[in-house]
């Protein structure tokens, strides 16, 4: 048995994975393990956030993120309220600043925000007294997704230190990949990003050199341990984000699938090589495009585990951001420098 | 974790005492390994006696040091009753009443035995009884796992200064202390040695 962990100073807001150092990530994942047990209880309720109010403010569509934040808050006895862009005064032309300041003026404790503009959460954090949690901002970041991905992979693979994770797909439009890169590197995993040249964000080579991850355009090569020459332990398929694409990224969906989809053939080769491999997808899946139905439902697929972990990880985040003492100096990892 | 021991009132189990291990300031030893062992043997017998046998008993330790104590008690009871007693752990972090007064910390594992707690006689086990706030939180946490037939409390040290109407059923040692003093329990499982020491105070 170990000593009780030393209290971990958490940042006031969770805007980017960069707000959390390796210790903070560890603390959140360890706490999520204990929170996961609440899910198995007959009475799914703990009193930790009694009397707190959490607003889920979603300007973009979401199933799992919004419902899991809501469930996480409710299981911890907080009052949670959902506001969607479509049904709010935003559709009457109210600015984001006015909307969040209006809600903040009601005395809420936390704003969980999803917005189509990269950096929206960062801006909101400067306007309100409430804690701000980024639930996905444009193509920038989605920190709680990266936390639940790490949590899910660790449950199956053990420590991610030295493990090799390949992330495949639409890197340009993916906020999931940005958050995952930060968390996976901080947890000691090796990362290889795979995408067609048109879906690699510009400037990624510089980033890859700085943070030490690999890039490839050749999925089959990476799956066979090419590139860095190391077999992969986890494969993360990203969604092709049709809603953010204005054409010209790849000729036809069929061609994308042939080059970069996790098809039945690729799945068979992969699991022959390493039956222990795990497959993640942040959802929602385009079955038949980036992932075949066989892969999505394979024994190696963690897709539903990811959803289940989502609630536990978000409980952990809400606990660490909201439950502790309030103080102006309560900043361990700062919120500075998370790109606006 | 370490006790209600070294904390000002209003905080349960809040200090992390690992940084206070400076042997030069080890304080006064009030219980040695043999004393602790004798006290636990007596408590084990008391538990069975009060329960009129080992039927229906479940021992639940409060992390961190209540858990090894619960295991030792269960092993002792198993020795003279010739049967296994279910042992568990109950973390109270999420039920504390002082969460807002300190930085958050990661909870320790909660592990309720297969048999559950419904209809059982649950003996909560902790190292030090001080303000009573930890036990209050533990009672709330336990209620979320079921409805025991009865809940009892066994502690290695009762140092007084209760802030709530709570008392222990089984006490290893009553230790009159000043609030300015710190009581530190060390167990072989967590600290490589069995001892109870008092430090601080105006002496």
Q: What characteristics describe this protein?
A:
heterodimer; A: 340 residues; alpha/beta; four-stranded parallel sheet; 38% helix; disordered N terminus; disordered C terminus; B: 203 residues; five-stranded parallel sheet; three-stranded antiparallel sheet; 4 helices
How is this structure best described in words?
- The complex is a heterodimer of chains A (340) and B (203).
- Chain A is α/β, with parallel strands linked by helices.
- Helices cover 38% and strands 13% of the residues of chain A.
- In chain A, the strands form two sheets. A five-stranded parallel sheet of chain A has the order 7-6-5-8-9. In chain A, strands 2-1-3-4 form a four-stranded parallel sheet, with helices on both faces.
- In chain A, strand 5, helix 6 (175-186) and strand 6 form a beta-alpha-beta unit.
- The longest helix of chain A is centred in the C-terminal third of the chain and has 21 residues, at 303-323.
- Chain B is of the alpha/beta class and 203 residues long.
- Helix content of chain B is 24%, strand content 23%.
- Chain B is built from four helices and eight strands, in the order βαβαββαβββαβ.
- Chain B has helices at residues 33-50, 66-81, 133-143, 188-191, and strands at 28-31, 57-61, 87-89, 121-129, 150-158, 170-174, 181-186, 195-200.
- In chain B, helix 1 (33-50) packs across helix 2.
- Chain B is globular and about 45 Å long.
- The two termini of chain B are 27 Å apart.
- Mean pLDDT of chain B is 88; it is low at 1-24.
- Chains A and B meet through helix 1 and helix 12 of A and loops of B.
């Amino acid at each position: 048995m170990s000593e009780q962990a030393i209290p971990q100073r958490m940042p006031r807001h969770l805007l980017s994975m960069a707000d959390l150092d390796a210790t903070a990530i560890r603390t959140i994942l360890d706490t999520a393990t204990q929170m996961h047990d609440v899910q198995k209880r007959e009475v799914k309720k703990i009193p930790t956030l009694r009397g707190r109010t959490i607003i889920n403010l979603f300007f973009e569509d979401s199933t799992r993120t919004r419902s899991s934040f809501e469930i996480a808050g409710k299981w911890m006895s907080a009052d949670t309220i959902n506001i969607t862009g479509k049904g709010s005064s935003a559709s009457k032309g109210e600015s984001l600043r006015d909307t969040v300041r209006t809600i903040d003026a009601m005395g809420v404790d936390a704003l969980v925000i999803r917005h189509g503009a990269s950096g929206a959460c960062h801006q909101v954090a400067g306007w309100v007294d409430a804690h701000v949690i980024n639930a996905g901002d444009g193509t920038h970041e989605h920190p709680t997704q990266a936390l639940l991905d790490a949590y899910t992979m660790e449950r199956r693979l053990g420590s991610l230190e030295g493990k090799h994770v390949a992330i495949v797909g639409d890197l340009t439009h993916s906020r999931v990949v940005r958050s995952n890169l930060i968390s996976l590197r901080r947890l000691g995993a090796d990362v290889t990003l795979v995408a067609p040249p048109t879906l690699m964000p510009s400037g990624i080579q510089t980033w890859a050199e700085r943070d030490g991850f690999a890039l490839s355009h050749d999925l089959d090569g990476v799956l066979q341990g090419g590139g860095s020459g190391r077999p992969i332990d986890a494969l993360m398929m990203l969604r092709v984000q049709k809603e953010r694409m204005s054409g010209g990224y790849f000729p036809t969906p069929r061609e994308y699938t042939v080059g970069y989809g996790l098809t039945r053939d690729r799945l068979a080769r992969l699991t022959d090589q390493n039956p222990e491999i795990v497959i993640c997808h942040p959802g929602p899946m385009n079955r038949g495009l980036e992932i075949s139905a066989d892969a999505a439902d394979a024994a190696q697929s963690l897709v539903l585990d990811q959803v289940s972990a989502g609630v536990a990880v978000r409980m952990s985040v809400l606990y660490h951001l909201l439950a502790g003492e309030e103080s102006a100096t309560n900043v361990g990892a700062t919120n500075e420098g998370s790109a606006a | 974790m370490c006790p209600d021991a070294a904390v000002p009132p209003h905080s349960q189990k809040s200090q992390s005492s690992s940084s206070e291990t400076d042997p030069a300031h080890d304080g006064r030893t009030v219980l040695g390994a043999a004393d602790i062992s004798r006290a636990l043997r007596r408590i084990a017998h008391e538990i069975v006696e009060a329960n009129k046998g080992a039927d229906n008993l479940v021992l639940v330790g409060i992390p961190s040091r209540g858990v090894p104590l619960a295991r030792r008690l269960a092993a002792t009871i198993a020795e003279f009753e010739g049967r296994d007693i279910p042992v568990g752990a109950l973390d109270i972090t999420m039920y504390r009443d002082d969460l807002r007064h300190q930085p958050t910390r990661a909870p320790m594992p909660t592990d309720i035995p297969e048999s559950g707690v419904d209809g059982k006689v649950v003996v909560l086990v902790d190292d030090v009884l001080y303000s009573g706030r930890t036990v209050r939180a533990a009672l709330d946490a336990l209620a979320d796992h079921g409805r025991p037939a009865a809940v009892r409390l066994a502690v290695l040290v009762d140092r007084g200064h209760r802030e709530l109407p709570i008392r222990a059923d089984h006490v290893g040692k009553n230790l009159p202390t000043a609030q300015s003093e710190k009581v530190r329990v060390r167990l072989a499982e967590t600290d490589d040695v069995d001892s109870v020491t008092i430090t601080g105070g105006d002496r």
